Amino acid sequence: MKKKIVLIQNNEVVLNIIDGILTDEGFDVTSSTTADPINDIDAINPDLIIVDDHLPGPKKGSEIISELKSDPQTENLSAVLTSTSTNLAQLSKDCKADDYIEKPFDIDRMVQVIRKNS
Fold this sequence. Notes:
Elements: E1 4-8, H1 12-24, E2 28-32, H2 41-44, E3 48-52, H3 61-70, E4 78-83, H4 88-94, E5 99-102, H5 107-117
Parallel strand pairs: 1-2, 1-3, 3-4, 4-5
């Protein structure tokens, strides 16, 4: 059975690139440029969420991950934060993300992080 990933990125080009790579790697990907899939997290039941910190809308990706990690229903869901921020390691630690992927990303490292956390 394929591992399920929710992928949320602010840039559609980056979203499509990562989605394609993960699909080629055998993952079942639900992708979006908005945080909408978070509202359906129970129905999707992903093994991992990957969220960009710089999202359009009221919440940053780090805030979304922090909320998921603070909720007993979703606290064990693996979460990876992505960003171009220079303080990404600290941001991911502060929101209790399981890992992070710096942008621009190295494809091999990205796949390694995702496999490790899914």
